[in-house]
Amino acid sequence: MHKMLTTAVLLFISTMATAEPLRITAFGDSLVHGYGLPTDQGLVPQLQVWLQENGADVVLTNAGVSGDTTAGGAARIDWTLSDNPQGLIILLGGNDMLRGMKPENAKTNLAAILTAAQAQNIDVLLIGMQAPGNFGPDYKVAFEAIYSDLATQFDSLLFKDAFTGISNQVSGDPVAAQKYLQDDGIHPNVEGVALNVAALGPVALQLVERISKQ
To answer: Which residues form the SGNH hydrolase-type esterase domain (predicted)?
Structure first.
């Protein structure tokens, strides 16, 4: 009996030791790609380090394309999912907003991306964006509602604003926020990414937990 128990324990330990890390793809635009940042300091590498430091055995793949829109994302999602990731983090819509594209079109495109993930039983974390006010309050409300609506429709995890970390750090002060942005005033610098990752991390950890339960 003792020998059988010892064998069982050794088999369990061996299985744990050889378990492969979870594979999650981060899909989006320049905020995902890491525009203007060292390759090891963008959103994806910083988030992977945060998750690993918090006990998650994961490998994040960077599927960010600078300048991408929701339409571009919808056009390439099938190719991206051909690698069969177990989880998907979606951060798209910023370029649509900057160009004043119709919220309903962005919603349709994001829905297509979520539908593709759902068809492969891939768990999703959808990251929202706060729209600028220069297109009017109605546009802002309509665009920001896209993310919560789709998260509910597809039972996805939702993180409402990609820039939450910076916003919290400066109490919403846009002037103070410049300290954490690159010279273009749009993309976060290394310190800004770190703040955003610290805010996003706990929800990304929920994604890992969802995947682990499959």
So the answer is: 26-194
Q: How many domains does the chain have?
A: 1
Active site residue 29: no
Please tell me the distance from the alpha carbon of residue 134 to that of residue 191, in angstroms, as a whole number. Answer: 27
Catalytic (active site) residue 212: no
Establish if 11 belongs to a structural domain.
no
- Mean pLDDT, the chain, rounded, equals 93
Q: What is the pLDDT of residues 137-195, one digit of tens each?
A: 999 999 999 999 999 999 999 999 999 999 999 999 999 999 999 999 999 999 999 99
Q: Determine which one of 30, 33, 123, 167 is catalytic.
A: 30
Q: Which domain holds residue 141?
A: 23-212
